[in-house]
Write a structure and sequence with these properties.
Structural class: alpha/beta
Largest sheet: 7 strands, mixed
CATH superfamily of the largest domain: Vaccinia Virus protein VP39
Order of helices and strands: EHEEHHEHEEEHEHEHEEHEHEE
CATH architecture of the largest domain: 3-Layer(aba) Sandwich
Mean pLDDT: 89
Low-confidence stretches: none
Radius of gyration: 18 Å
Helix content: 25-40%
Distance between the termini: 44 Å
Number of helices: 9
CATH class of the largest domain: Alpha Beta
CATH topology of the largest domain: Rossmann fold
Number of domains: 2
Length: 275
């Protein structure tokens, strides 16, 4: 499978870079590497839609200057690309997310992730905050659903924190395969990885649902998530901006949830809702 690597130069970089990631994510882009000049984004070559990209907000506003170049990369070349920039991430001095080539450190939870083209290493604000939520809440003996699992890192930490029954679901085949690899790499034995979307959810009820996707998918699927949540369960949502929190909360309240708290990092939000 061939991918396009698009190198975006953005001025000023923030918050435009974060906005561009969100917009490109809705166009099928799978992975992003941020840098001082902007970001590098990856999309399957046969899914790239130039017209749709040029119609997104950041290309139509004059608030930012954006230029880009592209080149074709084959799937196996991704390892060399992310290894150049992937540094270990320490969350709350308890959880280290690292690559196989990083040295192990003395932390409570050591997670080894080889992300390849998948989203979810802890570098992005949304993943970092969702990992923080897991560390701040009791997962012992809980059943957990990780929607849009990416690398599987959230489900992996949830199991390490005591969750006993877990499902990790992603619609992208690459993420599905990568999650299987990372689950095995971290010696997790209670995570079932599935390929698909919210339509896979049946009558199974969960104590905790984690969904780090994007605003539009969350708004569409919140009703389904609530139907799969046990009494006194918790729903953690991320992948949206602070200005979207009111809209997300209104949808959760519509289906019987109550807002409890949210974390915020660089205008990104990760919120907790409970029955």
């Amino acid at each position: 499978m061939e991918y396009l690597e698009l190198d975006f130069k953005i001025s000023p970089v923030q918050p435009a870079s974060d906005i561009l990631i969100a917009e490109l994510g809705e166009l099928g882009f799978e992975s992003f590497v941020e840098n001082d000049e902007g970001l590098i984004a990856y999309v399957q070559k046969d899914l790239f839609n130039l017209q749709a990209m040029e119609e997104i907000y950041l290309f139509t506003t004059k608030e930012h200057q954006i230029s880009w170049t592209s080149k074709t990369v084959v799937q196996q070349n991704w390892n060399a690309e992310w290894e150049k920039s992937f540094k270990p991430i320490l969350v709350q001095d308890k959880c280290l997310v690292r690559a196989p080539f990083h040295e192990q450190q003395n932390v409570t939870y050591d997670i080894v992730i080889e992300p390849k083209m998948s989203f979810g290493t802890g570098h992005h604000e949304t993943t970092f905050m969702m990992l923080s939520h897991i560390l701040e809440n009791d997962f012992k003996g809980k059943s957990v659903l990780d929607m849009g699992c990416g690398t599987g890192v959230l489900a992996i930490l949830a199991e390490k924190c005591g969750a006993t029954t877990l499902e990790a679901i992603d619609i992208d085949n690459w993420c599905y395969v990568n999650s299987l690899e990372n689950v095995e790499r971290n010696n997790c034995h209670h995570i079932e990885v599935k390929e698909g979307d919210a339509s896979l959810l049946g009558e199974t009820k969960f104590d905790v649902i984690l969904a780090n996707i994007n605003r539009n998918i969350l708004l569409k699927d919140i009703e389904t998530y609530v139907s799969c949540l046990k009494k006194d369960g918790a729903l953690f949502l991320s992948g949206f901006y602070l200005e979207d929190l009111e809209m997300i909360s209104a949808k959760c309240i519509e289906f019987g949830l109550q807002f409890e708290k949210n974390l915020e990092k660089n205008n990104w939000v990760a919120a907790k809702y409970v029955f």
